[in-house]
Design goal:
Helix content: under 10%
CATH architecture: Beta Complex
Number of helices: 1
Distance between the termini: 17 Å
Strand order of the largest sheet: 6-7-8-9-4-3-10
Number of strands: 10
Strand content: 35-45%
CATH topology: Metal Binding Protein, Guanine Nucleotide Exchange Factor, Chain A
Radius of gyration: 14 Å
Shape: globular
Number of domains: 1
Structural class: mainly beta
CATH class: Mainly Beta
Largest sheet: 7 strands, mixed
Protein backbone atom coordinates (compact mmCIF):
# COMPACT_ATOMS: atom_id res chain seq x y z
CA UNK A 1 0.00 0.00 0.00
CA UNK A 2 1.29 3.44 -0.90
CA UNK A 3 1.20 6.05 1.88
CA UNK A 4 -1.28 8.92 1.53
CA UNK A 5 1.59 11.43 1.45
CA UNK A 6 3.23 9.77 -1.54
CA UNK A 7 2.86 11.34 -4.97
CA UNK A 8 3.06 9.06 -8.00
CA UNK A 9 3.62 10.69 -11.38
CA UNK A 10 2.93 9.57 -14.91
CA UNK A 11 2.24 10.67 -18.43
CA UNK A 12 2.21 9.92 -22.11
CA UNK A 13 5.06 9.01 -24.45
CA UNK A 14 5.65 12.55 -25.77
CA UNK A 15 5.09 14.47 -22.52
CA UNK A 16 2.05 16.45 -23.71
CA UNK A 17 0.05 14.87 -20.86
CA UNK A 18 1.42 14.60 -17.32
CA UNK A 19 -0.39 13.76 -14.11
CA UNK A 20 0.13 13.22 -10.38
CA UNK A 21 -1.68 10.84 -8.07
CA UNK A 22 -1.78 11.49 -4.33
CA UNK A 23 -2.39 8.62 -1.95
CA UNK A 24 -3.29 5.04 -2.61
CA UNK A 25 -3.18 3.30 -5.95
CA UNK A 26 -4.95 -0.01 -6.32
CA UNK A 27 -2.73 -2.84 -7.49
CA UNK A 28 -2.96 -3.78 -11.17
CA UNK A 29 -5.90 -5.60 -12.73
CA UNK A 30 -5.47 -6.91 -16.27
CA UNK A 31 -8.58 -6.27 -18.37
CA UNK A 32 -9.01 -8.63 -21.31
CA UNK A 33 -12.14 -6.99 -22.82
CA UNK A 34 -12.40 -6.39 -26.56
CA UNK A 35 -12.11 -2.61 -26.09
CA UNK A 36 -8.78 -3.00 -24.25
CA UNK A 37 -7.61 -5.40 -26.95
CA UNK A 38 -8.23 -2.79 -29.64
CA UNK A 39 -6.78 0.02 -27.56
CA UNK A 40 -3.65 -1.72 -26.26
CA UNK A 41 -3.15 -4.53 -28.80
CA UNK A 42 -3.74 -7.04 -26.00
CA UNK A 43 -5.01 -6.72 -22.42
CA UNK A 44 -5.09 -3.45 -20.48
CA UNK A 45 -3.11 -3.31 -17.21
CA UNK A 46 -5.05 -0.88 -14.99
CA UNK A 47 -4.33 0.54 -11.59
CA UNK A 48 -6.94 2.84 -10.04
CA UNK A 49 -7.17 5.96 -7.87
CA UNK A 50 -9.91 8.17 -6.52
CA UNK A 51 -10.77 10.94 -8.99
CA UNK A 52 -10.05 13.72 -6.51
CA UNK A 53 -6.52 12.33 -5.96
CA UNK A 54 -5.55 12.73 -9.62
CA UNK A 55 -4.21 16.08 -10.83
CA UNK A 56 -3.46 16.69 -14.49
CA UNK A 57 -0.29 18.81 -14.47
CA UNK A 58 0.00 19.15 -18.26
CA UNK A 59 -3.19 18.76 -20.29
CA UNK A 60 -1.83 20.09 -23.61
CA UNK A 61 -2.42 16.78 -25.40
CA UNK A 62 -5.23 15.32 -23.26
CA UNK A 63 -8.34 14.21 -25.12
CA UNK A 64 -11.32 12.12 -24.02
CA UNK A 65 -13.25 9.55 -26.02
CA UNK A 66 -16.69 8.36 -24.90
CA UNK A 67 -16.08 4.63 -25.38
CA UNK A 68 -19.41 3.48 -23.91
CA UNK A 69 -22.45 4.69 -22.00
CA UNK A 70 -20.62 4.03 -18.71
CA UNK A 71 -17.12 5.44 -19.29
CA UNK A 72 -14.74 7.60 -21.26
CA UNK A 73 -11.08 6.96 -22.06
CA UNK A 74 -8.33 9.54 -21.77
CA UNK A 75 -5.45 9.58 -24.22
CA UNK A 76 -2.85 11.88 -25.71
CA UNK A 77 -3.97 13.31 -29.03
CA UNK A 78 -0.32 14.02 -29.93
CA UNK A 79 1.33 10.60 -29.49
CA UNK A 80 -1.71 8.35 -29.01
CA UNK A 81 -0.76 7.02 -25.58
CA UNK A 82 -3.62 5.49 -23.64
CA UNK A 83 -3.78 6.89 -20.10
CA UNK A 84 -7.15 6.64 -18.36
CA UNK A 85 -10.43 4.73 -18.13
CA UNK A 86 -12.91 6.97 -16.34
CA UNK A 87 -16.36 5.65 -15.41
CA UNK A 88 -19.02 8.35 -15.11
CA UNK A 89 -20.74 6.91 -12.04
CA UNK A 90 -17.71 5.93 -9.93
CA UNK A 91 -15.46 7.97 -7.65
CA UNK A 92 -12.37 6.38 -9.23
CA UNK A 93 -10.40 6.46 -12.46
CA UNK A 94 -8.51 3.59 -14.01
CA UNK A 95 -4.93 4.49 -14.89
CA UNK A 96 -2.94 2.54 -17.46
CA UNK A 97 -0.16 1.12 -15.29
CA UNK A 98 2.48 1.49 -18.01
CA UNK A 99 1.97 5.26 -18.02
CA UNK A 100 3.32 5.57 -14.45
CA UNK A 101 6.88 6.82 -13.99
CA UNK A 102 9.60 4.56 -12.64
CA UNK A 103 9.21 1.77 -10.12
CA UNK A 104 5.70 1.67 -8.66
CA UNK A 105 5.73 -1.17 -6.14
CA UNK A 106 2.44 -2.36 -7.63
CA UNK A 107 1.68 -5.99 -8.38
CA UNK A 108 -0.93 -7.70 -10.55
CA UNK A 109 -3.88 -8.97 -8.49
CA UNK A 110 -6.30 -10.40 -11.03
CA UNK A 111 -7.86 -10.62 -14.47
CA UNK A 112 -11.23 -9.32 -15.63
CA UNK A 113 -13.27 -9.97 -18.78
CA UNK A 114 -11.37 -13.19 -19.46
CA UNK A 115 -14.44 -14.39 -21.37
CA UNK A 116 -13.40 -11.95 -24.13
CA UNK A 117 -9.65 -12.75 -23.99
CA UNK A 118 -7.68 -13.07 -27.26
CA UNK A 119 -6.86 -16.62 -28.29
CA UNK A 120 -3.15 -16.00 -29.01
CA UNK A 121 -2.00 -16.10 -25.36
CA UNK A 122 -2.72 -17.96 -22.15
CA UNK A 123 -3.12 -16.64 -18.64
CA UNK A 124 -0.61 -18.75 -16.74
CA UNK A 125 -0.66 -17.28 -13.24
CA UNK A 126 -2.91 -18.39 -10.38
CA UNK A 127 -4.51 -14.98 -9.81
CA UNK A 128 -8.32 -14.63 -9.65
CA UNK A 129 -10.08 -14.56 -13.01
CA UNK A 130 -13.53 -13.13 -13.72
CA UNK A 131 -15.50 -13.81 -16.88
CA UNK A 132 -16.68 -10.18 -16.83
CA UNK A 133 -16.22 -7.42 -14.21
CA UNK A 134 -14.96 -8.29 -10.74
CA UNK A 135 -17.68 -5.98 -9.36
CA UNK A 136 -15.28 -4.62 -6.75
CA UNK A 137 -14.34 -8.04 -5.35
CA UNK A 138 -10.58 -7.55 -5.71
CA UNK A 139 -8.53 -6.04 -2.85
CA UNK A 140 -8.81 -2.22 -2.65
CA UNK A 141 -10.98 -2.09 -5.76
CA UNK A 142 -12.78 1.00 -4.55
CA UNK A 143 -15.62 2.49 -6.51
Amino acid sequence: MIENTKITTGGCLCGAVRYEVRGNLRDVVNCHCTMCQRLHGNFGPHTKARKNNITITNAAGLAWYKSSEIAQRGFCRECGSSLFWQPYEQDATGIIAGSLDGSTGLKTIGHIFVGEKCDFYDITDNLPQYQASSNGQLVNDFK
